[in-house]
Design brief:
Rossmann fold, 13 strands
């Protein structure tokens, strides 16, 4: 059973959005291709690192921290090593937040601190969040806090994670699988897209048929999404960048393409 929060109406602001997001497919891409965009975000800065998506939170945090330090991060706060009650304060006092990759469903469970009917956490791993922090991420992002997400972290920047096909054991005791995302960008991101993979393309094309409002931005490894205010682009080395898949059809995209229309 898939669960998603009801959509909420928000007041329309005339102010320039303070969106500052960077979304990548893999940690290796971050090191090899995204330095021009990642460096200015983390160089000399304090970064909150969320490693909840990965089965090995500690190992994931170590690898991600090492990659961030390559790009000049001054201090890294590993969130799952702190009491969950401190997350709000942490996000209010860092210069950027990094959402590491892994299982997207696990990341969502932790962002929302989902619980079973008996009150126990659905995610029983040591380090799992006991207090929801999705609202804190949304609040600080609205104030201009840069968010960087890799793989699962990229997916949760979008509208939902419905194209993620790896729920594994991340259902609650009543069988619910949660597909909420932060909703910061009104599309569904799909990392690790493989151009020419007909089975993948057909599967993704099914989602807009079920819900015509669905707009999927599928991103190949080596490319990444950059959002600054009202501008969204896909960047990376020369070659295929991915695809836009919606009810009207699909189209290929390449590094350098302007995707700003999909911010509306």
């Amino acid at each position: 059973m898939l669960e998603q929060r009801p959509s909420q109406s928000r007041a329309v602001s005339t102010e320039q959005p303070k969106r500052n997001y960077l979304g990548l497919s893999t940690l290796a891409d971050q090191l090899r291709f995204a330095g021009d965009h990642l460096g200015p975000v983390v160089n000399g800065q304090t970064v909150a690192l969320f490693a909840h998506a990965h089965n090995d939170m500690n190992g994931n945090a170590e690898r991600s921290a090492a990659a961030l330090r390559v790009h000049g991060a001054k201090e890294i706060v590993v969130v799952h090593e702190k009491p969950s009650s401190e997350i709000r304060h942490i996000l209010q006092n860092v210069d950027a937040a990094y959402l590491a990759g892994g299982n997207t469903f696990a990341l969502v469970l932790n962002m929302e601190a989902r619980r079973n009917s008996d009150g126990s956490l659905v995610d029983k791993r040591p380090g799992a969040a006991t207090v929801a922090f999705d609202g804190d991420l949304i609040e600080q992002a609205a104030k201009g806090l840069p968010l960087v997400g890799t793989s699962a972290g990229l997916m949760v920047l979008g509208k939902n994670i419905r194209t993620c096909a790896d729920p594994r054991s991340y259902a609650d005791d009543e069988g619910r699988i949660y597909t909420n995302a932060l909703g910061l960008i009104p599309v569904t991101f799909h990392p690790h897209y493989v151009p020419g993979n007909e089975a993948m393309a057909e599967e993704l094309a099914d989602y807009p048929k079920i819900d015509p409002s669905t707009r999927i931005v599928a991103v190949v490894d080596k490319t990444y999404i950059v959002v600054n205010g009202n501008v969204m682009t896909i960047e990376g080395p020369e070659g295929p960048g991915g695809a836009i898949i919606e009810a009207s059809g699909s189209k290929d995209i390449k590094p350098g393409d302007d995707l700003s229309a999909y911010l509306r």
